[in-house]
């Protein structure tokens, strides 16, 4: 019996869903192809892979309801992160500044677009310095938004986004706490893993968050990055590797009967993280996910947010 708290992909989808999958996967491969053509891995945006599937295939109601925000919010948070990364301050300080800037911005807007949390952290985590990063964010999010508007996904969502201020500030608190712990234990490189930060916020918003949901998220997400790192060690062709990632992530979700867009983002971290850090991504992911989802489970058990 499938867990009632898990939204399951329709793997026996109708023709239109199959077409949407194809377009989403082609979009991801085009992004990877652009990185190959321009010889610039800063063009690769892991969260864009997650957004393509979430917006065009899953049609996540709260993500498509305000189509213009698909372009505006991630572009602004990316610019925030890109600008702060230029400062001559410590890595931990950059993470803290980006986090607080994004939280204040979204609180002022009374709107949280979860993928924008990842695009805000990404330039700091990957140490992006080229303007190709910002161009890639603007172009890809604009295309994602245009497709949502063109096919009317925003009009058919039927759900008005709700601003959950408590979830936003608890998310901020958990992230700050973990960042402080990584500084204390001298593992600051694991302060933030962008795809996990999106899942953390989404989990805080769930009405119910049972322990088996947390465990399933930890297993699926860590399998995702572990498989990606192992393949990265043996396959050097970026396009071939990207294609394999997409197929494997589709199958991984089918096996576990879950719908977690971040699963598609995770493998692409191997292209944008410093090479010396890639091997440690499975360890970092495990630590971050166990802490984040464990604390979320405890909070949801005690509080209604």
Automatic annotation (TrEMBL):
Leader sequence segment: none
Identification of the protein by name: HPP transmembrane region domain-containing protein
Membrane-spanning parts: 18-38, 70-88, 95-113, 133-154, 166-193, 213-235, 247-273, 279-299
Natural source organism: Morganella psychrotolerans
Membrane recorded as keyword: yes
Domain of life assignment: Bacteria
Keyword Transmembrane helix attached: yes
Keywords (A to Z) from UniProt: Membrane, Transmembrane, Transmembrane helix
A Pfam family annotated for this UniProt entry: TM_HPP
HPP transmembrane region domain mapped to chain residues: 18-149
